[in-house]
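W.,

You were right to be curious about this one. When I first looked at the sequence I had no strong expectations either way, so I just let the prediction run and decided to look at it fresh. Below is the sequence, 241 residues in total, followed by the output.
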Amino acid sequence: MSTANAWAKPGRCGIIAALDTPDVARALAWAGAVAPHVGLVKVGLELFCAAGPAVVRQIAAQRPVFLDLKFHDIPNTVAGAVRSVCAEPPAMLTLHGGGGGPMIEAARRAAEDTAGPRRPAILAVTVLTSFTASQLAETGVSGGPAQQVLRLARLALSAGADGLVCSPHEVSRLRDAFGDAPLLVVPGVRPAGSDAGDQARVATPQETAAAGADWLVIGRPITASAAPGAAAAAIAASLAA
C-alpha cells in the first residue's frame, strides 16, 4: 500500500457511513452530521449516477471518500474508469474480484500512473452480502459464500489489490488465511435489533470488529435515523468501549 494510504489501516476498527441517496443536498447534510464520528463516507452507485464525479469532490471536502462503484469489465475499460475517477482520487475504490487478475492488475497500474502516491486503495469485492449459498449456486458457484470469498481473495491479493470487501461472516477466515496485511472493509453490519433489509450475511459492529475488520460500512442504521450524527456517534462509542 502506498504511503499516502497508510492511514487507511486504522489503529482500531473504523466506520464508513454510506450516503445512499440520489439527493446531493441530503448526502452533504448526512456527511456533515456524521463527519466527527466516522473515518470515511461512502459514495455508491445511487449517488454517483445521480450527481456524477462532482459530488465526490464536494463530499471529500468534509470527509475522505470510499468510492464504491464495483468496476467489472475488460481490463482496458476498467483501467480507463480508474484513470477517470483518479483525477481527484478518492481514498478507496472498489472493483469486483470476479473480474479476474488481469483486470485488478490493470486497475492498480492505472491508479498508480494517474495518482502516484495519492492513489486510492484498491479493494476487491468478493461475494456480495446479499447472497445466500443457494443464490450463489444459482450463478454456477458451488461450495458456498465462504469458499468463494477465499478463492477470490487469493486471486485479488496476488494481483495487487490492497484489500477486500466481504461480509462479517468471512472476516475471521480471511484473517486466518492472509494475516493482518489486507484491508478488510465490511458491509452487512447491523447494530443489535436493526432490520437486516436485503442483507443476508450480517453481524453486529462489535462482532465484526472482534473478528478482525478494519472498516465497517454502515448505511441505513445511520442515515434512516432521525439524528444521523447521534446514530453514528453511538456506534462509534460502542466500538470504542
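Here's what jumped out at me. The first strand starts at residue 14 and ends at 18. And, maybe more interesting for your project: The chain is about 45% helix and 15% strand.

Coffee later to discuss?

I.
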